[in-house]
Design goal:
2 domains, SH3 type barrels, single chain
Length: 233
């Protein structure tokens, strides 16, 4: 652990770019469970990379412009506290410039990665549910869905909503409509198979994805409810 205020500030300046990058990353996409060691390692590695890049750019710019406003590391090491007291401005300017540039590089990197993720998501990471319920749906139609559960029970109804992404354990499907149908075992517990129109009594049925065996989908006209033939599409 840092033992002096200067060492503490230097440590914070070193890890700041990695923290900035990590915060931006978490804001742009959902996080996932991981160990503290892995998270700290990613922050440290990111900080090291952005710090080295910013230092290299500053040294190159200082040499190119011949500004001579950065701290002289050789003299700092040789002179120690005496050099630091006599050259407070170059030291402060160097630290602030390096930190600002490193954080700017972290932000720019996140923007570039976010743009790449959006392009990949738009092409490769569309779920089958979104494809069937949204992109394949003809204009002015509603999806009429047959959902069979893992226990053999079935529900029929118009799609109200569904979870568009995420892990399967967190996804859900919602059906609605006055013509919504339940097909399965009788409520009294017998093995008798019944088909019951439940849409007049129940407004919505929420079905977790983990209980779904398969889905069958039709597209029906929004105004008339007539089946829309999509076989020629």
């Amino acid at each position: 652990m840092p033992q002096t205020l200067g060492a503490l500030l230097s440590f914070l300046a070193l890890v700041a770019p990695g923290i900035v990058f990590e915060l931006l990353r978490e804001r742009r996409r959902a996080g996932y469970q991981e160990t503290p060691f892995r998270e700290a390692s990613r922050v440290a590695l990111g900080s090291l990379v952005f710090t080295l890049l910013s230092c290299g750019l500053l040294v190159a710019a200082n040499a190119l412009l011949r500004a001579d406003v950065l701290v002289d590391l050789d003299r700092l090491v040789a002179g120690g506290a005496a050099y630091a007291r006599a050259n407070l401005f170059p030291i402060t300017f160097s630290v602030v410039s390096e930190l600002a540039l490193a954080c700017a590089l972290a932000t720019l990197t996140d923007l570039l990665l976010a743009r790449r993720r959006r392009e990949v998501n738009s092409v490769d990471q569309q779920t089958a549910w979104r494809q069937v319920f949204r992109r394949d749906r003809p204009p002015n139609t509603l999806p009429w869905v047959h959902v069979q559960l893992t226990d053999g029970t079935s529900f029929f109804g118009f799609l109200r909503s569904h979870t568009t992404s995420g892990v399967q354990e967190e996804r859900e499907l919602v059906l609605q409509g006055t013509g919504m149908v339940y097909a399965g075992k009788a409520p009294n517990g017998s093995d008798e198979h019944v088909e019951d129109v439940i849409g007049e009594r129940w407004a919505r049925v929420v079905i977790p994805a983990t209980q779904i065996r398969y889905l069958r989908v039709q597209y029906r006209d929004r105004a008339t409810g007539a089946l829309v033939d999509t076989r020629t599409r």
